[in-house]
Amino acid sequence: MVTGDGRKFIVHPILAAYVADYPEQCLVTCSKSKSCPKCHTGFKELDSGAHAPRTSASTLAAIAEAERLATSETNYRARCFAQNVSPNVNKPFWASLPHTNIHVAQTPDVLHQLYQGVLQHLIDWCQRLMTKEELDARIRRLPPGVGLRHFKNGISALSQISGSERKNMAKILLACVVDRLHTRAVTAVRSILDFIYLAQYRSHSLATLGYMEDALRRWDENKSYFIDVKIRSHLNIPKFHSLVHYVDMIKLFGTTNNFNTEMFERLHIEFAKKGWRASNHRDEFPQMTQWVNRRERIHAFARYLEYAVARRGASYSSVSLILLTSW
Ligand SMILES: [Zn+2]
User: Which residue of 22, 44, 190, 209 has the smallest Cβ count within 10 Å?
Assistant: First the structure.
């Protein structure tokens, strides 16, 4: 690879982080569905915190042992499942990659784990505790506020709830349940909301990571309320379990905005949806790639003009304005 000053280097990339949603995490790490892809925790123990971490070697050893001892295909699958390993892939692509621990490489995912997972469950439970109609009525009664979305029809009638809608729900949820639900339920809701917001800090110290651990501890102390009132029969939910790995992951890889899937969802709009709309919807792929290509070239040329004009000390606002309007 060539660096900015023109020097060439031989580069050996190491697979250190793998951004994926939960089904893909299980597929990539050869973990049994509904188990934790990062630690040796099966479905029935998900609620009991983190267990010993999985390693690439332990997963490969489990697959190899199942292959060696299996007496039939059914027996092989049963042996894999007993070790919380998926029997579907027996030669994973990462098996020969040096310095890679595929289980550690699975990164936290604020959009799918926290907003579309944990918070979605929590809102559902609040609706069942106080009825959908009452939560809707309380949401409708909220006065409009800057930075808040006003759900004028409540939230229960919404279908296909987007990430940004879920974020707007998070802003108002606590205010709508605080004087209505039991103290333990309110504390549980608040601790999860605290955790969600702390997990999105753009910088962290040991103190702020301590706040995340505090929030998780408060959730652990109060979550049994949902079982006591028979809203849930258990809390073995992979996305809730994933919270126990957040602090360690942030210490290892930095803040969660480094590997947030929202960025890729956003790029899907820029690179795929807008390109599709710009095409005539027939033999669309070459048109879409050309559309993206042109936009990138215009962007690169605009940056060059900015650089060139700024270097000569002249005003470039008129130049960039013409370029922007031509987009
Ligand atoms: Zn785990």
Answer: 44
